[in-house]
UniProtKB/TrEMBL annotation:
Species name: Prunus mume
InterPro entries found in the cross-reference section: MFS, MFS_dom, MFS_trans_sf, SLC37A1_2, Sugar_P_transporter
Keyword Electron transport in annotation: no
Protein name as it appears in the record: Glycerol-3-phosphate transporter 1
Keywords: Membrane, Sugar transport, Transmembrane, Transmembrane helix, Transport
Name of one Pfam family that matches: MFS_1
Membrane topology: Multi-pass membrane protein
Listed transmembrane segments: 30-50, 110-129, 141-162, 168-197, 209-230, 236-254, 306-327, 347-368, 375-392, 398-420, 475-495
Family statement: Belongs to the major facilitator superfamily. Organophosphate:Pi antiporter (OPA) (TC 2.A.1.4) family.
Amino acid sequence: MISMSEPASERNYSKPPGIRLLEYIKKSPLSYKTHQAIVLIVTFLAYASYHAARKTTSVVKSTLDPESSDVSLKFFPWRMTYLSEPAEGRRLSRILGDGWAPFNGSDGTALLGEVDLGFLAVYAIGMYFSGHLGDRTNLRIFLTIGMVGAGVFTSLFGIGYWANIHTFYYFLGVQMLAGLFQSTGWPSVVAVVGNWFGKKKRGLIMGIWNAHTSVGNITGSLVASALLTYGWGWSFVVPGLIIATVGVLVFLFLPVSPDSVGAEEDELDSPKKCGAAGVTEPLLEPEVKVKESAVGFLEAWKIPGVAPFALCLFFSKLVAYTFLYWLPFYISHTAIDGKYLSSEASGNLSTLFDVGGVLGGILAGHISDRLDARAITAASFMYCAIPALFFYRSYGHVSMAVNIALMFITGMFVNGPYALITTAVSADLGTHSSLRGNSRALATVTAIIDGTGSVGAAIGPLLTGYISAKSWSGVFTMLMVAALIAGLLLTRLVVAEVGAKIEESRSRSASRSQPTVIDV
């Protein structure tokens, strides 16, 4: 960071236009805390809008494919089944509840699963490149381009409604391009937040901040459900416009780092203080004299803890994204207390899973801060998710109250470790001691962890599209096995953390038992 003694004329700041306007109105520079507040608010809104745009597909599925009960598990790819279907058999009705070709055919559920795969596969691949580019470009500009692009292609999916498009390739292609632009989001927002906040209470702060995922899912579900009666196209266009608008807000107001805006830390509130009791570990080293080079992809993989957490997130996101993309569909096709809910009601009810996810993310962050044990916390939540999944599948149909309670609990345990790993853990590993203070690894490490997780996120919804055609119990078995594997992958780190805790406890006991020598 530039020292106070350096002449102002030599400072090369790139303040966003909105920050300059606020300082002009205030007639003085914004404080460090004010910048931090702006970062949290803007990045929260940004990624909430990403998830709101992403959530719409799950709500609209039961409208595009209302007769999934007739779906059988096909052994032929969609290209053969759809193209070989007689023209008169391809229903092109615009009536709500009559479905939308090509998704209302006998293989509609499988086709929807492949659309999800297209989006998430490109999203996962793009994530790796986005992290690489994010550490080398202006994150504010990079994030703005991603959000506007995601908004355009999300809207184009909905425009297919008014353009009367029934070509599978159109919907697949648009979703793949939307996935590419969506991949710019997570590495960018985590890197920006990591630039402004130190490690102390990082788990709690990021656990609360990570509520944007669930808030976005809830918003997307409510908006998409409310607009279904006006035509399913609106359920895509409106979220697309929202994310593009927030993208403009990011361009105007997001300060990427303290260095970029010349923000000086307050003496008492700095997260980078050193040399005092209760001092926090600095997230980034501001006084580095040598120009830093971005960390390479393979080098980032070698950082201790990156590989096991990345693989854990593979299975964790497989579970979380299966719920993200299929929960409203599952609810609408499962009798609760002997009654089936409409697509709109199912979308609204599914938001309670994300409400539980908000609490889960905050609890996981807070617990991991108190215990100083990220792996123990994440593994414990994944193991608790297994019985939660079992009980939701087995007893969720008994009554609405039981369904709501079990859905909330399941969301808490499923989203807790997912939120912890993608935020606090990624930030911890992106500033690992092995990097020797290099601050240009955060986006790359975040991209590796979340990119690997996104591969699982692509596989889960795809498999669900096929397995659900035979049995939803098979889907839940798959999810429980995935949760078990996710927990087991952290075993080595859990053992290391437990060993460290035991050693720390012994050291404290030894220090207390030593006699105190008083000099006379």
